[in-house]
Amino acid sequence: MLRCKILIAFLLIASTICKAQDAQDIVNVWLKNADELSTNSSRDSFITKSLLGIKDASSLAEAEFHIGQYFLDKNVYNTALKFYQKSLKDYYDKNISAFTAKVYNDIGFINGQQGKPDDMLNYYFKAIRIYEQYDDHEGLAVTNSNISSAYFDMGKKEDAIFYAIQSLRMRQKTKDWDALASRKKWI
Questions:
Q1: How confident is the model over 64-103, as pLDDT tens digits?
Q2: How is domain 96-187 classified at the architecture level of CATH?
């Protein structure tokens, strides 16, 4: 019964953003991984709970974001991108928050994986602007690190170093010593 409710909720969300065949493909992936989703990680458990109890646009957008992350983790980038875009359209573009920046950061990553470095950086910088508004040091650290990696991959070492240092400064503010140590080692 629980699995049926999850499937119905998931199909409703999927069908609103995909063509019928795409929605069926998404449901097939969901079914193959449903047992793993219910036991694997806290984020996957959140997905299940969210799909069963969506009460408002914010909850729907957050569920869509987490479903996008699920597909991102599985390297199914086009599907992840659809869920991220849906979450922006449904809520986060109208209600800017640090969560909006997380969506932009992940869309930036997808663009990088799809060989679109200009789009990747555009989304990373959108995320940075929002994180700065909210003084979100953790988000700034992660996204500056992503920008540093992007520039490094593009052969722009001076820019890579600049953003790596920005990331380190933010890591110091968060007192995330493990991340700070690993980033210093990278430089």
A1: 898 899 899 999 999 999 999 999 998 999 999 999 999 9
A2: Alpha Horseshoe (1.25)
